[in-house]
Fold these 3 entries.
Entry 1:
Amino acid sequence: MNAFGGASEVELLAERDDDLELAQLHSIDCFNRLINLQIPLDRSNREAYGEPHEFPENPGGDGPGSAIWGTTYLTTTQLLPAGRPLLGAVLRALPAGLVLIAISRRLPDGIWWWRALVLGALNIGAFFALLFVAASRLPGGVAATMIAAQPLLVAGLSTVLLSERVSARLVLAAVVGVTGVGLLVLPAGAMLDAVGVAAAVGAAAVFAVGIVLSKRWPSPAPILATTGWQLASGGLLALPFALILEGVPARLSVANPAGYAYLTIIGAAVAYVLWLRGIRALPPTRVAFLALLSPVVATALDWIMRGQRLTPLQAVGGLIVLGSVVASRLQRLPQPTSGAIAPAPQEAA
């Protein structure tokens, strides 16, 4: 209190800081409840936002996140300007990453500056760039089928880097899943291009490495901050390529901002938080299988929203993909192998 009985400037500033802190905690709580993390809003527990969270395994895993990615194709073709996939990737990742960092109020420290950059490049920046090359030189179904091979790559990398023993049944389920994606989206008589094939294989490889390294390097930060670091770094890495190769569109239609907003909020912020939460909670091979749901959702939306005809062969392919995902979920948890490189401990992060 001051001499006139009113609150002092120090007290007012303290109250304002408390209000800002409560507002920040409330925004974190709202986002957490949106993605079903269910972190309680309790001022006495606010320090928990600075600690790593371990999420129990749940039946859904990252299924919703992979399904959201399946809506990207319809959004891109219907709401975004044509011929600018890299710009779409930047506007999808960078704003979402900056918002998540602002909400969590946490920046990387120590080795996590370069780890966040590497993971952002693998999961977002390099992946989108290679995907752009593959999509521009190959039919979409060919690129999707090749990228669907990532569960096989994740299985091999998990054996080496995470000391996981991968069963023959899991490998068979991965092969069946790739076959199902091929039946679902692969056009008849598709022509192959060497550069496009290399880019598609590279996209699958960098994304598989990103999944396994995300598991090997457990982040000490909350999931919102970790996701924000990767989205922001991946968006920044893709930005110069977007500006050089595509440039900025001269004008935007009324629908374009709505499309970018959807991809930023739902397609990046929500979907990638769910994706990285799945990597924290599940073995990486199971997370990789869930990514096969994306082409299934994309095909289903084309059938429902755009009236495209679904052939019997495509229907069989979709059922095969769903069966492979279910088969991967029925596998026992992978066991450590002898003599393999052990995962990095939590303390090392």
Entry 2:
Amino acid sequence: MTREEIQNLILQMTLEEKAGMCSGADFWHLKGVERLGIPSVMVTDGPHGLRKQAEGGDHLGINESEKAVCFPAGCATAASFDRELIKRQGETIGYECQEELEYMSLEKQVTEYMPPCFLWQTATDELVPVQNSFLFAQALQEKKIPYAFHVFSKGKHGLSLADEAWANEEFGEPYTLEQTFALGQAVNDGTFPVPEEAKQALNEMAKMFTGQTKREKEQANEEVKQWPELADEWIRTTL
């Protein structure tokens, strides 16, 4: 969603709805705004471990929480002056978070209420395995959700419309660039630690956006750029 779209949503919100986003729907969920399509989002407690109550949320801990390792308070670990120990604590919390990734797996979130879906991906996508899309399509099939699924033979990640405009680099809104540069700054000053190869890739991307380096000239993907027409036809004939 672009900055302009977000600002447009905010302009449509009433004062009560804006205040409600600050107070929360319950102990674990932010309030959504159904009429504007803004969902309720779950947050988790921390940073002394992954605390989460699946049901019966309360601030006293009377109701059952999801089982997780509880670590000492930050003031206690900081007083140890043991950076390696604190690093291991952070890694352990991260491992526990991995178990929650099932919630982020789209194919596990498909229900009979899922709207019809149009999917496309390339078989050579180097960042998102095409198997992910197959799993999602299979879940849609099992729930009898109308869908169309196209896998194109070749194409990199991030093709967008894959047309001449994309090939000529007619993309990149100010908001998108702003977020990329902010992330790059956080990585370089150590606020957001990442593997060295990821840091190098992000810096190269920033150089490309600022014109310091030029990416290899792209060509419109004649196969993939058909997807908007395929989607339009599917929508008109199926929905």
Entry 3:
Amino acid sequence: MPLSRERPSRSELARVGRTVVSMTTPDVVTVLPRVRWMARRMPLARPLAGMVAVLMALAACPHALAATPASSSGSDAPAGKNCVGAEEARAHIAGDSGGEGEDAPPKFSAALYRRTLRLDASLDGVDGRELPISIEEVCNVPKARAKEASQLAGADGVALLRPQTSVWLDGTQQQGDDVSVALESADTAMLKVRLARPRSWREDEDGNKVPTFRTRRIDITD
């Protein structure tokens, strides 16, 4: 596109702006020199230069948008990252102690107590403000804390339901009595939690203290 030395008019700026919004990859290559020239001579055109730069980057990597996962506030639980599963937990125990000391009380660092974890868990009804869980996998665990987190994977626990705990089912946040109904009917869920200190741990039906969690969010998955 030949470049004029005259100052760009507002009408020309608007025309180029409409082109940028609807342009295809060849359009980007064609209009870029003009937009850069306009940006040097008219401050109002500078945002267009930024838009074109972004489009040029996307044109160079056409799959960038397709590879970007959409975010959602609904109950579609996010895929777990940095996870420790029950099988890995048993391997840690066997490797560290040769199978001995499996019943020893777990010990955790202050760093793990401060960390928000994601639990993939099986549910078995709800008891008031307590939700008994069987932990299948612990996620959002940094590598340095994986050995500690392995003490939780494969174990039973209790998720505490607090006033600020949100419960989601099929993309909808449950309210009032629907919370209890949804949890009673659920078989599995992803929970966003923090591990409570041992002094706050609840007891199982045999009277043994089990890991207990302050629960921020529950995404029912089945």
